[in-house]
């Protein structure tokens, strides 16, 4: 068969895939909340938490690269205009200037989208911030697959990139409560931090689990005899929903939430994964390469702990554009898809 | 020149001589190094460290100091030479240059060397950090200046222009940048690798108070630094310094130009002698 241009082949593939799925959903606005309809939410938890923190800490400043409104930093800008720096659409400058301000004793919270921090500004973060172990907090919206805008905006490899960077602490929070608690916690930690951000109306659920964020700590949110899901970010929310759904089928799913991807809470992971008889499933809103799944696998193998192990994550591919519910279903990270996959593994 | 100007000039010429000499001695330790660049920028460093800047040699992190950011990290040999002359780094450490466990690595890093403000080497980053320092100093009400040295090759990097634009936007009149135009970068003459002229027009269009000087004319360098500090406008200040690689050692200056100037093993001593001859001339 004659070779066809790659782009044409891919477009046709997409059209046939799309045709099989009805009804077609519209791509939601990029700024839309990832919350499901009817879900409890809280508005702009990062922005409110940063304003509160700034009241107690005069060294806190806010910086952005033309994404103040889209990272909830506009609340800080309004409350503390003299501590807010609009750096323009220039992510490399944003990071270099954050380094310089940190050197002068400020505590910068620098915001942009996860794609731009992880890809465009990587060397600037590496060299101007991390190499000098500077106190800069990089907080980034649209982590993983949380927008339908396609690969330009989908940060599916950010955790792998920042895990690989020496000195960097990496946080993937689950909900509004966790973001609120993480803001003062990362401020209290000395050194560079990369935190994934959920903005706008952010799901609120961890208050039902008497949850308290602790930097570097994994927390068992729910115990279960048959399956242990180890997850971070929005996949913890999905895992808890899956656990509820599978309980009706008499499958008992435990959920270990790991918001700090680096440094990893290896002791807790080994303890929970080492309990015999359970299938261990690592679930993450990130490519299969280099994220929580591989981090957990390395930790387990290095310790000689070898439970049955599976990964629920995004494929190593440039993902489609479209509506988020469609995409989450297509790539297996919706609650329904995840429940089906796990049931399949249990046989 | 009146007598005080003459005395200043003579004093700084002597400092520049010692910076060049220290750089040659370090080059000899390694048998190589960016001595061509060190020789071309020695006059600028002499004026920066012994005429313009305020600092305390025994307390390099004193908060009242003027900051000096070396964006072109491979010029570390030149800055070490100046830091030694300034008494910030002990003279005896010169012999460790580029060796294992030395505080003087081949490419400058903040975490290694007292008086080194940033980790350069990934070119095009210095001015972005300088913008942050300048904003931070203003927040603190500090009167200190942020000096940034960068090279003509770095003009190829987009982030340089992000920083240039933002420095004017934020009216960072506490920023003084010096771009070394020696017209050499890794792959050849900078103007051929990527045309950057007309540079004065570009810098002025970007909102900088701009001077272009012969960077190896000590009197011109002194005047430019004075004018940069005293300029009344709320603008960042740019000094475009045209320099000659190998300046101070005639046979190196005459040698075929390259990113590296070749110096054979027996030539280090000859270079030091040539430098001495220029000093007494």
TrEMBL record, chain A:
This protein's name: Transketolase family protein
Chloroplast recorded as keyword: no
Keyword S-adenosyl-L-methionine: no
UniProt entry keywords in alphabetical sequence: Thiamine pyrophosphate
Domain of life according to the entry: Bacteria
The family this protein is said to belong to: Belongs to the transketolase family.
Region (Disordered): 1-21
Record domain Transketolase-like pyrimidine-binding: where: 40-204
Pfam families linked: Transket_pyr, Transketolase_C
Residue ranges the record marks as coiled coil: none
SUPFAM superfamilies documented for this protein: Thiamin diphosphate-binding fold (THDP-binding) (SSF52518), TK C-terminal domain-like (SSF52922)
Cofactor(s), by name: thiamine diphosphate
From TrEMBL, chain B:
Gene source species: Azospira restricta
Keywords carried by this UniProt record: Thiamine pyrophosphate
Protein name: Transketolase
This protein's record includes keyword Transcription: no
Family listed: Belongs to the transketolase family.
Biological classification of the source: Bacteria, Pseudomonadati, Pseudomonadota, Betaproteobacteria, Rhodocyclales
Record's keyword annotation contains Transferase: no
Cofactor(s) demanded: thiamine diphosphate
Signal peptide interval: none
SUPFAM superfamilies in UniProt: Thiamin diphosphate-binding fold (THDP-binding) (SSF52518)
Domain Transketolase N-terminal span(s) in chain numbering: 28-267
Top-rank taxon, per record: Bacteria
